[in-house]
Amino acid sequence: MLFKRITILALSLVLCSVVEAQSPIANRVKGVISSLPKSAKVVARYMDTQRHSLYFIIENRLYCYDVITEKRNEVSFADGSYNSILSIWLSPDRNFIFIAIDKKGFVSNYLDGGRELWRFDSLKKRYYKVGQGYKIKRLNDTIVIEQASRCINPQAPLDKQRWMGKEHYYDAYGKVIWAKEEFEIKK
Q1: 130: left (phi over 0), alpha (psi -120 to 50) or beta
Q2: Burial letters for 108-138: b for 16+ Cβ neighbours within 10 Å, e otherwise?
Q3: What is d(CA 31, CA 171) in angstroms, rounded to the nearest whole number?
Q4: Which residue would you say has higher pLDDT here, 2 or 176?
């Protein structure tokens, strides 16, 4: 009986110490959130000992604040050349941050690369370009990127040109699933 009580007490202390070990990081993250400007959008909070950081958007730029070093850095991707962040979401396991951006004014053909989808790995701090096109959408656990594939009448004036496109399908982690057959893009 005494052994059982000591075991329960020891387990309680271990559990309390684990919770206490994470609470300083959680408190720091909460403090950073409360000090952000009202225009900021919180994307992800990581309170584990490996990442201990907060990701947020201010003025169409993604930032990471490390609560241990107390440093804020811009998450650099797409060479910084984009107009706006269209949407941002997390993978189901919350390890990847997906960023859909608009590159209007930075590309010669918007149908081919006017929008880009990037995946940022919050564990390895690396980014990867998933794909590009003129439309990016999410359907449940599937990502669809519509991209122009070829011009049917390249000799025509720009406003009269007709284009063919494809829909490229990706899973919730940015891995290619398949591409549909070509279709004519309706303007």
Answers
A1: alpha
A2: eebbbbbbbbbbbebeeeebeebbbbbebee
A3: 35
A4: 176
Q: pLDDT digit string (tens) for 83-121?
A: 899 999 999 999 999 999 999 888 888 888 899 999 999
Q: What is the 3-state secondary structure (H, E, C) of the chain?
A: CHHHHHHHHHHHHHHHHHHHHHHHHHHHHHHHHHHCCCCCEEEEEECCCCCCEEEEEECCEEEEEECCCCEEEECCCHHHCCCEEEEEEECCCCCEEEEEEECCCCCCCHHHHCEEEEEEECCCCEEEEEEEECEEEEECCEEEEEEEEEECCCCCCHHHCCEEEEEEEECCCCCEEEECCCEECCC
Distance of alpha carbon 109 from alpha carbon 19, whole angstroms: 52
For residues 82 and 57, give the distance between their C-alpha atoms in angstroms, rounded to a whole number. 14
Q: Which residues contact 141 (CB under 8 A, 6 or more apart)?
A: 92, 171, 172
Q: What is the pLDDT of residue 4?
A: 55
Task: Let me know if 98 is exposed, middle or buried by CB neighbors in 10 A (0-12, 13-18, 19+).
Answer: buried
Q: What are phi and psi of 75, to 5 degrees?
A: -80, 110
CA distance 39 to 21: 31
C-beta separation of 172 from 141 below 8 A: yes
